[in-house]
Every structure is written in C-alpha cells, then in structure tokens.
Amino acid sequence: MTEVGMRPGQPRMVLASASPRRAELLRQVGVTFRVAPMAIDESPRRGEAPDAYVRRMALEKAQAGWQATSGPPPVLGADTAVVLDGHIFGKPRDREDGVAMLAGLSGRRHRVYSAVALVAGSRAQVALSCSEVTLRRISVAEREAYWATGEPCDKAGGYAIQGLGAMFVARLQGSYSGVMGLPLYETTRLLREFGMDCLLARDGG
Predict the structure, then answer these.
(1) CATH number of the domain that 16 lies in?
(2) Whole-prediction pTM value?
(3) Which of these is catalytic: 79, 85, 94, 97?
(4) Helix 20-28 and helix 184-193, axial crossing angle in degrees, nearest 10
(5) Strand pairing class (12-15; 75-84)
(6) Is 79 a catalytic residue?
(7) Hey, what's the torsion of the CAs at 10, 27, 57, 148, to 10 degrees?
(8) What is the spatial distance between Cα 154 and Cα 162, in angstroms, rounded to a whole number?
(9) What is the tens place of the pLDDT at every residue in 134-191?
(10) In the beta sheet, which residues pair with residue 126?
(11) Total domains in the fold of the chain
C-alpha cells in the first residue's frame, strides 16, 4: 500500500485503484491518500445498463477496499466505461481488440460513464458522470500506429484523452476528468459530504 502525502491537515482517504490517472487527479485537488488496488470480478451482468454497471463497479471496489483496510479513512472506488450503441468497451484484450475498438469509435459519437463511490463503514454514496465524446475519422494506419505507442493498452475504449489520443477527439460534452477516469466535480462533492473539503483544507480551514 503506497501513501501519497500532501500537506498536514488535508483530506485523507484510501484509493481502491492502481490507476495513475486517478491518483494524478486526486493530487491535483490536494487529497492525501493511500493506494490499495482491489481485484474484483468486473464482468457485466446480463441486461445490465452501462450506467448501472459502472455505479456497481465503483461501489464494489470501494466496499472491497473498506473490508481490506478496515478504515478509519473512507475508501474511494471508481470505474469508467466507454459505451457505443449500448455496448460497453472496456480495456482492450490485445492489439486486435484495441484496433477494432478504435475502428468502431472512428467518426462516431460515444458516451463515457464514470462513477465514483465513497465508503466508510455502513455509509456509502455513489455519484455518476456521463460525457459525450466525438472522435474524428481514424485511418487504419493511424489505429495501428497509435496501438504501437502502448498508450491505449490499459485504457477503457482503447484511447486516452489526456495523451496522444487527444488528437482524435473532435468534440467533448461533459467532464474531461470524467473521461480520464475520475470526475472531479462528483468526487469533491462526495468528499465534502464526508466532511473533507479539498479547497478549505488548502488554507488549513
């Protein structure tokens, strides 16, 4: 378990994720946290809607983190899914899968659902962000070259809006941080509800 320290008195919690992007976003808003990744079954249930799926995943990760750490800091779990025509695009299994994902998203508008959950004992709250992203047309050569960079290997939908994948994004309606993997508006709102105000903590308030 790795601790990412900020200044004394700032909000403290546990991040139930190994994602460097989520850690980066939490540091951006001044949260002190420990990293405790949780391995759970992330298979969608039959007939489960994409928004319900990411909410369930975020909550189950946070609950697993709470059971593993036993508090007292609250545990944050998060999950993100790229959705096209009702189909959930997770992380690519391999090159063929990743290139196929980009082919499907090429020139199309898709949704990105990102859920965040906070758990502390019997208390649990979940928030959801939904964004719409339109990618420009991506040629076969570009898909292959992008996969070869290694960037899309561990990204939902096979692209990273904060990296080279930004060159494919023609339009974004919604939360940039949500598409990255952790919607900061929803996250900081939940933290405030749990008594942790990131902005006030910066001033020692």
Answers:
(1) 3.90.950.10
(2) 0.88
(3) 79
(4) 60
(5) parallel
(6) yes
(7) -170
(8) 13
(9) 999 999 999 999 999 999 998 989 999 999 999 999 999 999 999 999 999 999 999 9
(10) 117
(11) 1
